[in-house]
Design brief:
about 45% helix; Rossmann fold; binds guanosine-5'-diphosphate-rhamnose; binds NADPH dihydro-nicotinamide-adenine-dinucleotide phosphate
Length: about 325
């Protein structure tokens, strides 16, 4: 049985990846810090056969213990402070978890002596492109991060490249563009929209707040994107891959479509008020990925299109808010 260890297992991608790996017959282990008990309980309800181990990307000795105990064939590093907005408020914690955390994990793997046997996935991000140097962005596009989160991810990305070259380790970086779905955290804009649109539809609220509606993102469905993570680790050596849909849409487009899918008619302004607190000190205006390499080398394409993604999220939240 192939053994996989996932950091950040109780997050959005952790849910989708766990489901995929269990379906493929893997034995799955996850790292959690033991602080978010309700999150862990709901995860364990969904995936009772997954063993959760207490550890933290800021704590080297816990990582060594977990690697020694689980002896994984594959490690997926999904753990991060992943909300860009928060990274401006907690830049040092973000650098420690999202940047240095990956370095610690690699050093823990080397300390245990598994560096020649384990295949590693690093969750790199389109936020590394930030103020984009070219359109669309591919694996060779220079990085220009615009947030402490983007800077931390860029550190981790180059650490992966360096350890791959210096120690011949099998490390792949998925430069994933925004991906969303039923397990998305409520702080991210897509989920904030689908959740509040569902509340309006069910009569619980009349309106809600958002920040800038003009930024454009390349949005895909998380269930498709975790397949690319797994496929990367089945290649003969590590590499970097842009994982994206190749389309871009504004926050306004997402909102307009969500309202339409929920059957809410009328002016956007009647449903959404402006919240200046949501404005970031520096913004990423436009992201659009070129996933050609993933298509050629991994036979991967983003199967779920934008409209279907918005529908999945709105219908999921309509059901959840009805039940509540
Ligand atoms: P989530 O925010 O949903 O999940 C992140 C996970 O990291 C959570 O389970 C969180 O646990 C955990 N975590 C936080 N701090 C630590 C720590 N100190 N040690 C160990 N684990 C920690 O993110 P996603 O699932 O959406 O994303 C997965 C990864 O992919 C992240 O690294 C993210 O930055 C990256 N990424 C995501 C993209 C997206 O669009 N979703 C795009 C590109 C990259 P807890 O909740 O208990 O704090
Ligand atoms: P992002 O996602 O920063 O792209 O990072 P987020 O959903 O937070 O923001 C997308 C865009 O929407 C604008 N926006 C708002 N954002 C939030 N959260 N709340 C609002 O009310 C709001 N109003 C407007 C933002 O300014 C931004 O331009 C996500 C995360 O998953 C990262 O971890 C990942 O690396 C990148 O995607 C790729």
């Amino acid at each position: 049985m192939t053994r996989a260890l996932i950091t950040g297992i109780t997050g959005q991608d952790g849910h989708h990846l766990t489901k995929l790996l269990l379906e493929l017959g893997y034995e799955v282990f996850g790292v959690t810090n033991g602080e978010q008990k309700s999150q862990e309980e709901s995860f364990t309800k969904l995936f009772p056969h997954v063993k959760l181990l207490e550890g933290d990307l800021t704590d080297f000795s816990s990582l060594v213990t977990i690697i020694r105990q689980t002896k994984p064939d594959e490690v997926y590093n999904l753990g991060a402070i992943s909300f860009v907005g928060i990274s401006f408020k907690m830049p040092e914690v973000t650098a420690n978890v999202t940047g240095l955390g990956f370095l610690r994990l690699l050093e823990a793997i080397r300390k245990v002596g598994l560096e020649d046997n384990v295949k590693i996935y690093q969750a790199s991000s389109s936020e590394m492109y930030g103020k984009v140097r070219e359109i669309p962005q591919n694996e060779l596009t220079p990085f220009y991060p615009r947030s402490p989160y983007g800077v931390a991810k860029t550190f981790a990305h180059y650490t992966a490249v360096n350890y791959r070259e210096a120690y011949d380790m099998h490390i792949s970086c998925g430069i994933l563009f925004n991906h969303e779905g039923e397990y998305r955290g409520h702080e991210f804009v897509t989920r904030k929209i689908s959740h509040h649109v569902a509340l309006i539809k069910n009569g619980a609220i009349k309106d809600f707040t958002l920040g800038d509606l003009s930024p454009q993102r390349d949005w895909g469905y998380a269930g498709d994107y975790v397949q690319a993570m797994h496929t990367m680790l089945q290649q003969s050596s590590g590499d970097d891959f842009v994982i994206a849909s190749g389309e871009t849409h504004s926050v306004r487009d997402f909102l307009t479509l969500a309202l339409k899918i929920a059957g809410l008619k009328g002016d956007l302004d009647s449903y959404v008020k402006f919240d200046k607190e949501m404005i970031r000190p520096s913004e990423v205006d436009l992201l659009i990925g070129d996933p050609s390499k993933a298509k050629n080398d991994l036979n991967w394409v983003a199967a779920t299109k934008f409209e279907e993604l918005v529908r999945i999220m709105v219908e999921n939240d309509l059901n959840l808010t009805k039940q509540a």
